[in-house]
Specification:
mainly beta; Transcriptional Co-activator pc4, Chain A; seven-stranded mixed β-sheet; 2 helices; 15% helix
Length: 135
Protein backbone atom coordinates (compact mmCIF):
# COMPACT_ATOMS: atom_id res chain seq x y z
CA UNK A 1 0.00 0.00 0.00
CA UNK A 2 1.25 3.47 -0.82
CA UNK A 3 2.04 5.91 1.98
CA UNK A 4 0.74 9.37 1.00
CA UNK A 5 2.05 12.48 2.72
CA UNK A 6 -0.53 15.26 3.10
CA UNK A 7 0.56 18.75 2.09
CA UNK A 8 -1.70 21.36 3.65
CA UNK A 9 0.41 24.49 4.05
CA UNK A 10 1.85 26.82 1.41
CA UNK A 11 4.08 29.87 1.18
CA UNK A 12 5.27 31.95 -1.76
CA UNK A 13 8.63 33.60 -1.18
CA UNK A 14 10.00 36.86 -2.59
CA UNK A 15 11.30 35.00 -5.69
CA UNK A 16 7.79 33.60 -6.43
CA UNK A 17 8.79 30.07 -5.34
CA UNK A 18 5.78 28.08 -4.15
CA UNK A 19 6.61 25.84 -1.19
CA UNK A 20 4.11 23.18 -0.11
CA UNK A 21 4.53 21.27 3.14
CA UNK A 22 2.55 19.67 5.97
CA UNK A 23 1.28 22.06 8.65
CA UNK A 24 2.10 19.61 11.43
CA UNK A 25 5.66 19.07 12.57
CA UNK A 26 7.23 16.16 10.71
CA UNK A 27 10.90 15.23 11.28
CA UNK A 28 11.39 14.27 7.62
CA UNK A 29 9.65 17.49 6.47
CA UNK A 30 8.15 16.34 3.14
CA UNK A 31 8.03 19.34 0.80
CA UNK A 32 7.30 20.21 -2.80
CA UNK A 33 8.84 23.41 -4.17
CA UNK A 34 7.92 24.89 -7.54
CA UNK A 35 9.60 27.78 -9.34
CA UNK A 36 9.10 29.42 -12.72
CA UNK A 37 12.04 29.21 -15.14
CA UNK A 38 10.91 30.86 -18.35
CA UNK A 39 8.61 28.41 -20.14
CA UNK A 40 9.38 25.70 -17.57
CA UNK A 41 8.55 24.94 -13.97
CA UNK A 42 11.18 23.35 -11.76
CA UNK A 43 9.82 20.98 -9.14
CA UNK A 44 11.75 19.73 -6.16
CA UNK A 45 10.11 17.05 -4.04
CA UNK A 46 12.04 16.17 -0.90
CA UNK A 47 11.60 13.90 2.06
CA UNK A 48 14.40 14.04 4.58
CA UNK A 49 17.68 13.88 2.62
CA UNK A 50 16.01 12.44 -0.53
CA UNK A 51 15.04 14.69 -3.43
CA UNK A 52 13.45 14.27 -6.84
CA UNK A 53 14.02 17.24 -9.14
CA UNK A 54 11.98 17.66 -12.33
CA UNK A 55 11.74 20.36 -14.99
CA UNK A 56 8.45 20.37 -16.90
CA UNK A 57 6.78 22.73 -19.35
CA UNK A 58 4.52 25.25 -17.63
CA UNK A 59 1.91 25.03 -20.42
CA UNK A 60 1.74 21.23 -20.10
CA UNK A 61 1.19 21.43 -16.35
CA UNK A 62 -1.36 24.24 -16.66
CA UNK A 63 -3.36 22.37 -19.35
CA UNK A 64 -3.34 19.12 -17.41
CA UNK A 65 -4.46 20.84 -14.20
CA UNK A 66 -7.31 22.50 -16.12
CA UNK A 67 -8.43 19.14 -17.56
CA UNK A 68 -8.45 17.13 -14.35
CA UNK A 69 -11.70 15.51 -13.38
CA UNK A 70 -12.49 13.87 -10.03
CA UNK A 71 -12.04 10.10 -9.78
CA UNK A 72 -12.56 7.69 -6.88
CA UNK A 73 -9.62 7.03 -4.58
CA UNK A 74 -6.09 8.33 -5.06
CA UNK A 75 -5.70 7.54 -8.76
CA UNK A 76 -3.58 9.63 -11.11
CA UNK A 77 -5.06 10.31 -14.55
CA UNK A 78 -2.37 12.47 -16.19
CA UNK A 79 1.42 12.45 -16.53
CA UNK A 80 3.61 15.46 -17.29
CA UNK A 81 7.25 15.01 -18.26
CA UNK A 82 9.13 12.28 -20.08
CA UNK A 83 9.16 8.49 -19.91
CA UNK A 84 12.01 8.50 -17.37
CA UNK A 85 11.01 11.46 -15.19
CA UNK A 86 7.50 12.77 -14.72
CA UNK A 87 4.85 13.89 -12.27
CA UNK A 88 1.60 11.95 -12.30
CA UNK A 89 -1.41 13.93 -11.10
CA UNK A 90 -5.03 13.18 -10.29
CA UNK A 91 -7.99 14.75 -8.55
CA UNK A 92 -10.01 13.03 -5.83
CA UNK A 93 -13.78 13.33 -5.54
CA UNK A 94 -13.30 15.87 -2.73
CA UNK A 95 -10.91 18.05 -4.83
CA UNK A 96 -7.60 16.99 -3.33
CA UNK A 97 -4.71 16.96 -5.79
CA UNK A 98 -2.73 13.72 -5.93
CA UNK A 99 0.88 14.19 -7.09
CA UNK A 100 3.45 11.46 -7.71
CA UNK A 101 6.83 12.88 -8.84
CA UNK A 102 8.76 9.92 -10.26
CA UNK A 103 12.19 9.10 -11.63
CA UNK A 104 12.40 5.73 -13.40
CA UNK A 105 15.70 3.85 -13.17
CA UNK A 106 14.84 1.08 -15.64
CA UNK A 107 12.34 -1.75 -15.94
CA UNK A 108 13.39 -2.94 -12.47
CA UNK A 109 12.54 0.10 -10.40
CA UNK A 110 11.72 3.73 -9.80
CA UNK A 111 11.66 6.34 -7.06
CA UNK A 112 8.31 8.00 -6.40
CA UNK A 113 7.03 10.41 -3.77
CA UNK A 114 3.32 10.03 -2.96
CA UNK A 115 1.82 13.42 -2.11
CA UNK A 116 -1.74 14.69 -1.73
CA UNK A 117 -2.91 18.24 -1.08
CA UNK A 118 -5.93 19.75 0.57
CA UNK A 119 -8.59 21.31 -1.70
CA UNK A 120 -7.38 24.82 -0.76
CA UNK A 121 -3.80 23.96 -1.74
CA UNK A 122 -5.02 22.53 -5.05
CA UNK A 123 -6.53 25.95 -5.85
CA UNK A 124 -3.29 27.66 -4.78
CA UNK A 125 -1.30 25.48 -7.19
CA UNK A 126 -3.70 26.10 -10.10
CA UNK A 127 -3.52 29.87 -9.54
CA UNK A 128 0.28 29.89 -9.10
CA UNK A 129 0.92 27.76 -12.22
CA UNK A 130 -1.27 30.11 -14.26
CA UNK A 131 0.91 33.13 -13.39
CA UNK A 132 3.70 34.24 -15.69
CA UNK A 133 7.34 33.99 -14.77
CA UNK A 134 8.92 37.24 -13.63
CA UNK A 135 12.31 36.28 -15.07
Amino acid sequence: MRNYQILDSSTIDQDNVLLLSPAEDNPEKPTLSMSHEGAFISLSASFGPLEIALRIRQDDLRRRLERLYPVPGLATTHQIGSVNSYIAIGLTKDNRLVMRPTVVADAHGRVTFNLVTTPALYETIVNWVGTESES
